[in-house]
Amino acid sequence: MRLLVIGTINSEIQAAIVIARSHGARVFFENAIDNALEILRNGQGADMVLIDCKLDIAKFVSSISLEHINIDVVAYGVSSTPKEAVASIKAGAKEFLPLPPDEKLIAALLTAITDNTRPMIGDSLVMKQAIETADQVARSDANILITGRSGTGKEVMAHYIHNTSNRAQKLFVRVNCAAIPENLLESELFGHEKGAFTGAIARRIGKFEEASGGTLLLDEISEMSTHLQAKLLRAIQEHEIDRVGGSTPIKVDLRVIATSNRDLEKEIEKGSFREDLYFRLNIVNIELPQLSERIEDIPALSEFFIKKYCHNNNISPVKILTKDTLKFMQEYNWPGNIRELENTMHRAVLLSKGIEILPNDLMIKNKNNFLGKTLEAAEKDIIMNTMKHCLGDSTVAANILGISIAMLQEKLANYPDTAVDA
């Protein structure tokens, strides 16, 4: 991931940067908000911003909002007070990072924003076939459609294809089509010219231009409006884009990888996805199986996540699964797929009392009894149990449930008297 730090570089933030780099982050520095905004406008881009709590966070957050720049903002402060942390959140920061740095907290922040560190793990036949297909097409420039249920590892596969392609030394740029409001997504993809809309005080380079030479991942493309699908089709066909408010087409050279957790052929029948765009993207389709269809991979995946979270939380020696625990895991159906497995291993690493992870440490049940309950009550149970399983993290829960964050938040708002006991 790319991390933009805004503020004076002192020993405390430098120590935090060392930790971030050890977790794979590429770090850029700017000491002033205006300079940082210029970086974000001109196509250098970032996945997350760390900003000193003593700077004008409200001005920065307001500026990126007005200019349709979609990015997570985390404030930081040296020996800061609770009052400073609260003020930073009220000003628009998503999180607050106290310094001197805590490695576990920094690792958690980086993981929450973007985590692309998992290698392709798959000894099962279905995964070997998927990886073999990826290897065959990686060095071509063919557009690729990766499909599969939420949590099956579609973004990890996209990274794998980029890293084994001829574009590996260039940028890999991701756009989450499901997380960006429609009125912001066009500017996010294609950029805009100064004066294109209220708040567009300068030219902004979009993700297509930013990714030129490399790979653009359009994550959950089925969530894109048909209006934008038409513009996307032209960009892919002609290898050129028009910035919002612009009059001159701009040539781009990139490979597009798209993902979807929906059946796009059914979406075409419903009229919510363009057939011509589907054929343009689906030069090669890689379908990723559910975890329940590749139980042979559970031991290796579990070992990877256990090592990862033992390292992130300074737990030594590395914990191990007992035979009974592994048997239990291979009999469970994993509705949230690999994302749920990772979350379960994280929880088990933190809550298990010895070096061995026992079945009860997983805190999952193989059966749910909804007999005699209304559909509404059963849905509430599923949602609240998933939220508890995810330690209250609505982003992870929404992915496991296969719904948008906005929909999950709307449903949680209907359960005001129910607490998430994490």
Question: How does this model look, in words?
Answer:
By secondary structure, this protein is of the alpha/beta class. It has 18 helices and 14 strands. Helix content is 44%, strand content 14%. β9 and β10 form a beta hairpin. α16 packs across α17. The longest helix is centred in the last third of the chain and has 15 residues, at 298-312. The radius of gyration is 22 Å and the shape is globular. The two termini are 28 Å apart. The mean pLDDT is 88.
Question: Which key phrases capture this entry?
Answer:
422 residues, alpha/beta, Rossmann fold, Helicase, Ruva Protein, domain 3, 3 domains, five-stranded parallel β-sheet
SSE blueprint and pairings:
Layout: E1 2-6, H1 11-22, E2 26-30, H2 33-41, E3 48-52, H3 57-66, E4 72-78, H4 82-90, E5 95-99, H5 103-113, H6 125-137, E6 144-147, H7 154-163, E7 172-176, H8 182-190, H9 207-210, E8 215-219, H10 226-238, E9 240-241, E10 250-251, E11 255-260, H11 264-270, H12 275-281, E12 284-287, H13 298-312, E13 320-321, H14 323-331, H15 337-351, E14 356-357, H16 375-389, H17 394-401, H18 405-413
